[in-house]
Amino acid sequence: MTVTAIVGATWGDEGKGKMTDALAAQSRYVVRFQGGSNAGHTIINEYGKFALSMLPSGVFYPEVTNVIGPGAALDIESLLREKEALAAGGVPAFALRISQRAQIVLPVHRLFDELEERRLGDSRFGSTKRGIAPFYADKYAKLGIQAADLEDGQRLLLKLEQSLAAKNVLLQHLYGCEPLDAKALLPELLKLGQRIKPYVCDTTRLLQDACRSGEPILLEGQLGALRDPDHGIYPYSTSSSTLAGFAPVGAGVPPYAITRIIAVVKAYSTCVGAGPFPAELAGAEADELRRRGGDAGEFGVVTGRPRRVGWFDAAAVRYGCRLQGATEIALTNLDVLGYLDEIPVCTGYELDGTITGDFPVTARLAEAKPVLRRLPGWRCDLSGIREFGELPHAAKEYVRFVEAETGVKVSSVSVGPRREQLIRL
Ligand code: GDP
Question: Which among 223, 255, 296, 341 is most buried, taking Cβ atoms within 10 Å?
Answer without folding.
Answer: 223
